[in-house]
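Exercise 7. Predict the joint structure of the components listed below.
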Amino acid sequence: MLHRLTISQLTERLVRRDVSAREALAACLGQIERVDGQVKAFLSIDRADAEAQAGAADRELAAGITPAEKPLLGVPIALKDVLCHRGQPVGCASRILEGYISPYDATVVSKLQAAGAVVFGRLNMDEFAMGSSTENSAYWTTLNPWDTTRIPGGSSGGCAAAVASNEAFATIGSDTGGSIRQPAALCGCVGFKPTYGRVSRYGLVAFASSLDQIGPFTKDVRDAATLLGVISGHDRRDSTSLPEPVPDYRAALTGDSLKGLRIGVVKEFQIGGLDPGVDLAVKAAIANLEGLGAEIVEVSLPHSDYAAATYYIIAPAEASANLARFDGIRYGLRVDGPDPFELNCRTRGAGFGAEVKRRIILGTSVLSSGYHDAFYLRAQKVRTLIRKDFLDAFGKVDAIVSPTAPTAAFRVGEKSSDPLQMYLSDIFTISCNLAGICGLSMPCGFTGSPRLPVGLQLLGRPFGEETILRIAHAYEQATGWHREIAPLG
Ligand code: GLN
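Solution:
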């Protein structure tokens, strides 16, 4: 049952030399062999490369390198297909990048490896991170380890499903409007979106550059703190990364009561359309937080109603510019034509899927000269108001609590023909990215029947990661939902 250990449990055993890094990797690969035919989280795995890394970790363990020096020594961690890993395919689950091999490592990958991690495997996602279910992958839909008739969420669905099925000890994904938190919620794991500027995006294929952040999926809050500590920090290769010092995030997990902390519930989030099972679980969680000593306070985010509309102007606008680089000349797929223009049109026509085309068309339209001021500029102004709402609220409270998603995992096909319904899956997560603040999702119970995981979202101030980790840890220790194992775990 090695594959079911958390990172901190695995690390203890690695240090005691009870298990080797090669065995830890073999445990993941064995579990993948057993269940990934049903879960379909992985797009590819370079076994030889992973085994070489595990061998190197074993040599370091034998030489007495400690977790204090390398906190992830020998821990297998898998990546969303949006992060560059040298010598490995990077495809963003898109046909347009077919055959592309990355010549370099993303900063997060270098940091994971410097911390001793065994970085292996490419995880499925919605094409270019656009979606909430992985149904927009050009390859296949990943399925939820709790119920394989259902989606795992998205866009980092492969990341969440791999952790929930114990195919990896942790995974790294990206969150532009909820793509870490929503799949974490739907698969019953912990997903952390750090503050904008906390983690370098060098080597992350950009979707919407003013919103994208990289973050971890883990089995518990302590592991999230460990990974966050490893991947955070300033990087001169990403001018949006900020030079804030990186605290010892695990030191924030004090186990103290939450006395003295104020946690906000958002007036505007009390909307209809919330799944009753989600509503019940989240209300119970809020009562629990109160029981742990926190004071629950109502706060208002008056511009919440505009968050989805604002996001679906800004994100496609930035995506249309970022995706212009996929021209059939420089990367991946090329469909030849009589001239470069035709080549470009044919490559993009064949290489991008329907949702990506929809976003590019939407984005170029809101940026076009006749519409720029009416849509893009106005959306930027509303975004400023949304950020201000949060900063005002954080004048009164230390964190904000809400459901992560309005429903539990939905059935494959249930929303794929209705983009608007799909966009509403992000209703509680997108404003966090617009405001640039940090947020996590963690398990807080299950819906009745069918029994599916429910996610609790905790939002924190810019660089307030420690506070939400502290709250999350206290709640986790008091409830123990993270110990539930998916049928395919
Ligand atoms: N579901 C949202 C979208 O489709 C968010 C995706 C993300 O965070 N990458 O844009």
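Discussion. The pocket of glutamine is lined by residues 129-132, 155, 175-179, 207, 315, 426 (CB under 6 Å).
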